[in-house]
């Protein structure tokens, strides 16, 4: 009885750990995409500023 409980508990812990890692990995991927998007926005904003600055002179 105790062995089956421990087996079920360890199985449940493995599943939870796997799910947690999967969610964490997905979160990190989304965060990385967001950061890349922000960097792209900053680069295009900088490019626009340079173009605008050249046009004002």
How would you explain this protein's 3D organization?
There is one protein chain. It contains 1 helix and no strands. The chain has 57 residues and is mainly α.
Give the CA-based shape: rod-shaped
Mean pLDDT: 84
What class do helices, strands and sheet pairing give? mainly alpha
Segments where pLDDT lies below 50 for 5+ residues? none
DSSP, total strands: 0
| Span of the ends, CA to CA | 84 Å
Tell me about the largest β-sheet: none
Task: Please identify the oligomeric state.
Answer: single chain
Topology order in helix (H) and strand (E) letters: H
Count of discrete alpha- or pi-helical segments spanning 4 or more residues: 1
Radius of gyration over all CA atoms, rounded: 25 Å
Estimated helix fraction: over 70%
Strand content: under 5%
Notable characteristics:
0% strand; 1 helix; 57 residues
SSE diagram, text form:
Blueprint: H1 2-56
What is the gist of this entry?
The chain has 57 residues and is an all-alpha fold. Helix content is 96%, strand content 0%.
């Amino acid at each position: 009885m105790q062995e089956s409980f421990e087996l079920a508990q360890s199985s449940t812990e493995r599943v939870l750990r796997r799910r947690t890692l999967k969610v964490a990995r997905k979160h990190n991927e989304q965060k990385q995409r967001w950061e890349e998007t922000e960097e792209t926005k900053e680069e295009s904003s900088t490019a626009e500023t340079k173009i605008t600055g050249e046009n004002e002179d």
